[in-house]
């Protein structure tokens, strides 16, 4: 397999992740936020086992499994429930933009942990990313704090889950760099996520799952897309052009918004796209300003 092919796998993974938000929302609409997520991660886990093989507990340190796995499971559940519990498809896309604050937050945490001097332009870049999120909530009527507050108060739990997920994933990116030591237990983490979601589903008030042909096809497709994204990225990081892939990965908010709006049939206003552009540019600047400091941050998607 050539260097070009490894890089191609990484590019394919980025585009597959770009389609995930829209697909996850369609699964939640068909099976419910919790039941749909449980089905989705079960299928993705099975797919990863078929592709990567059965994970063996003894190959991984207990510290990595407990800390890394706990953070991974928490993040995936926050993201899945934020997508599924959004009041509308448009609001689900807002959750996605909030989720993409994680690169900027990752850099901030990395700087704090490393205690190294960085460019003063880093902080305006982080601010730009956060401003982008607020901008997506304003609508074409123009910026209004009242409008933003009303938007959030209409579904505070969902907005809270989306932001919490971004923070958790930022912590995961920093922590796993220190404790993973080359280990990759992604299949085990997906299995754990599915198990937790099934327990949550059993304890919830959601009704029984109903399998129509279209809904069944959607959940299988989404699970395979999700699993394929992680499997391809796992291949890409072996010998791919990580500088190129890291740069492209920071455009995921734009790719995700475009694909998801098409999948969900949502027409987005100008301010929403402006906000997405701000989040993307802010995150890209954060990475650019720390790219020559490999001890600070390592690109992760």
UniProtKB/TrEMBL annotation:
The chain crosses the membrane at residues 7-24, 30-52, 64-86, 92-113, 120-137, 157-173, 185-203, 215-236, 243-266, 272-290. Keywords: Cell membrane, Membrane, Transmembrane, Transmembrane helix. This is Aromatic amino acid DMT transporter YddG. It is found in: Cell membrane. Residues 10-137, 159-285 form the EamA domain. The keyword Cell membrane applies. InterPro entries: Diverse_Substrate_Transporter (IPR051258), EamA_dom (IPR000620), EmrE-like (IPR037185). It is a multi-pass membrane protein. GO terms for cellular component: plasma membrane. The keyword Nucleotide-binding does not apply.
């Amino acid at each position: 397999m050539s260097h070009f092919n490894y890089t191609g796998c990484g590019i394919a993974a980025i585009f597959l992740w770009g389609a995930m938000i829209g697909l996850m929302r369609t699964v939640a609409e068909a099976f419910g936020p919790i039941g749909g997520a449980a089905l989705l991660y079960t299928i993705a886990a099975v797919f990863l086992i078929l592709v990567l093989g059965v994970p063996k507990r003894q190959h991984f340190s207990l510290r990595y499994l407990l800390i890394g796995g706990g953070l991974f499971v928490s993040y995936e559940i926050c993201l899945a429930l934020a997508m599924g519990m959004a009041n509308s498809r448009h609001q689900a896309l807002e959750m996605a933009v909030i989720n993409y604050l994680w690169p900027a937050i990752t850099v901030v945490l990395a700087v704090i942990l490393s205690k190294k001097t960085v460019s003063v332009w880093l902080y305006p870049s982080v601010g730009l990313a956060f401003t982008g999120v607020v901008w997506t909530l304003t609508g074409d009527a123009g910026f209004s704090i009242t409008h933003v507050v009303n938007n959030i108060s209409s579904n505070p739990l969902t907005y809270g889950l989306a932001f919490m997920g971004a923070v958790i994933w930022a912590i995961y990116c920093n922590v796993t760099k220190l404790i993973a030591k080359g280990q990759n237990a992604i299949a085990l983490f997906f299995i754990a996520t599915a198990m937790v979601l099934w327990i949550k589903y059993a304890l919830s008030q959601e009704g029984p799952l109903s399998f129509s042909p279209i809904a069944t096809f959607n959940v299988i497709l989404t699970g395979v897309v999700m699993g394929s994204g992680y499997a391809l990225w796992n291949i890409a990081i072996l010998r791919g052009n990580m500088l190129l892939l890291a740069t492209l990965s920071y455009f995921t908010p734009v790719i995700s918004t475009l694909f998801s709006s098409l999948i969900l049939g949502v027409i987005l206003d100008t301010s929403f796209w402006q906000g997405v552009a701000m989040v993307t540019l802010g995150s890209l600047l954060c990475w650019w300003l720390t790219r020559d400091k490999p001890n600070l941050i390592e690109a992760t998607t």
